[in-house]
Design goal:
With 136 residues, this protein is mostly helical. It has seven helices and no strands. Helix 1 packs antiparallel against helix 3 (42-53) and helix 4 (66-79) packs across helix 7. The longest helix has 17 residues, at 16-32.
Length: 136
C-alpha cells in the first residue's frame, strides 16, 4: 500500500493570499533596488494571474530524466507480458507508444505497481506515481 502525502503549510502555498504577499514583497524589493523593469514585466504578469485565478491555475514544471521514463515503460511492458521495452528497436518503440497514446483505455490500473514489486522498481514506482499525481 502507499500513503498520500498531505501538503505542509510551512512549505506549500495553500491560499492565494499567501503567495500574493510573497509576490508583492518581491515586487516592492525590486522597485526599491531600481529594478522596476523586472518588477513591472514578468513578475507583474504573475501577480495578475494569481489575482485572477489564484493558485489553482499555477503552471507546474515537472521534469525527469528520460532514463526514468524508459525504466517505467519497460516495467509496464514486462508486466503486460510484452517483453522488455528497453530491448526493442526505435521503430518498435515509437509504433507501440503511438498505439498506446491513441487508445482511450488506460494501459494499466493505477497502483498495480505496488502489487508487483518483482517487476516494478522503486524508481519506476516513483515515476508512475508522479504521473498519477499530475493526472489527478
Amino acid at each position: 500500500t502507499h500513503s498520500v502525502i498531505e501538503p505542509d503549510a510551512g512549505t506549500v502555498y495553500l491560499t492565494k493570499d499567501e503567495i500574493m504577499d510573497e509576490l508583492q514583497l518581491l515586487h516592492r524589493s525590486l522597485c526599491d533596488t531600481d529594478n522596476e523593469i523586472t518588477a513591472d514585466g514578468f513578475l507583474t504578469d504573475i501577480i495578475r494571474n494569481v489575482a485572477a485565478f489564484g493558485v489553482t491555475m499555477a503552471t507546474l514544471d515537472i521534469r525527469n530524466e528520460s532514463d526514468r521514463h524508459e525504466e517505467a515503460v519497460d516495467c509496464i511492458t514486462r508486466y503486460l507480458g510484452l517483453g522488455s521495452y528497453s530491448d526493442w528497436d526505435e521503430e518498435t518503440k515509437l509504433n507501440w507508444l503511438q498505439q498506446q497514446l491513441s487508445s482511450p483505455r488506460p494501459l494499466i490500473r493505477p497502483g498495480v505497481w505496488y502489487d508487483h514489486p518483482e517487476i516494478f522498481t522503486p524508481t519506476s514506482i516513483d515515476t508512475l506515481e508522479t504521473f498519477t499525481m499530475i493526472k489527478d
